[in-house]
Every structure is written in structure tokens, then in C-alpha cells.
Specification:
It is a single chain. By secondary structure, this protein is mostly helical. The protein has one domain. It is 48% helix and 0% strand. The protein is built from six helices and no strands. It is globular. The termini are far apart. The relative contact order is 0.16.
Length: 145
């Protein structure tokens, strides 16, 4: 796993339930499970799509990642939800659905600037200045062109 680890997942879901959700007959150790790796990579891509306009994702998700508690919580919640959801025979418990919705709300708040990621590097210009997000408003109250 690239950004989160087994302990991050176990804080949200019991190890036995996680192992059953991503069961691979030849793999008994949760840390060797390629399904979890794939789900985590897709979740990281989702997170990057939300925060890349403000934060330097290349540094945050580098070989030695910059771990942030909020990002760990977001990624772990989404990974648990998607892991449980992949089992079509089992209904996803409401707790995990709520965790997933909360994680997406956190990402939206980070994207809008209402919530910040502490100790995560922001995008900078070549001179080292901060980059302000592109913002615009094309509201036309009178509906005239």
C-alpha cells in the first residue's frame, strides 16, 4: 500500500471483515493483497483530482509520502467502503456509507478552500510564491447576452 497501511484500515473496520471483503484464496496477509493496493491507488487518484488545484500532489504522494491525518482518514474510509462494496452478495453497512459520504464532503471542503491540509505543501510558482486558484463568476441576473 502506498499511502495508508493496515493499521489505518483497522481503525475503521475489523481485520476479519476486511480480509473477507477482499478475500484472495492464495493471500492470507492483508498487506500482501493486490486488490487493496488497486483500490487504494484509485482512491488516491480520486483525492488528487480534488486537491491538485491547491496542493502539490507529487510531493504529498511521493515515494516517501507526506502523511496527513485528514488524508489518511479520507483515503482509508473510501478504501473500506469500496472494499466492502465489491462483494455483491453483501449489503454495505450504513456506517461505511456514512464514512464514504463524509470523506467526499471533506474532499469538497478542501477543494473549495473551506478546509486546509496542515503541513501539506501547496502549489507554488517558479519564484516560490503561492498560486491562487482560478476563480470566476459569469452570473447574469438579467439573462441578457
Amino acid at each position: 500500500m502506498k499511502y495508508i497501511n493496515k493499521d489505518d484500515l483497522i481503525t475503521i473496520i475489523q481485520e476479519r471483515l476486511m480480509s473477507e471483503s477482499v478475500a484472495m484464496p492464495e493471500v492470507t496477509n492483508i498487506e500482501e493483497n493486490t486488490i487493496l493496493d488497486d483500490i487504494e491507488l484509485k482512491t488516491i487518484d480520486l483525492v488528487i483530482s480534488y486537491i491538485s488545484g491547491t496542493y502539490n500532489c507529487d510531493l504529498i504522494f511521493a515515494e516517501l509520502p507526506i502523511r496527513n491525518g485528514v488524508l489518511v482518514q479520507i483515503i482509508a474510509s473510501i478504501v473500506v467502503y469500496r472494499s466492502v462494496k465489491r462483494n455483491a452478495a453483501r449489503k454495505v453497512p450504513e456506517d461505511y456509507v456514512e464514512l464514504y459520504k463524509e470523506a467526499i464532503k471533506f474532499l469538497e471542503r478542501i477543494q473549495s478552500g473551506a478546509m486546509a491540509l496542515v503541513d501539506c505543501p501547496k502549489l507554488t510558482t517558479e519564484e516560490g510564491g503561492s498560486i491562487s486558484p482560478v476563480w470566476g463568476n459569469n452570473t447574469n441576473k438579467d439573462f441578457f447576452i
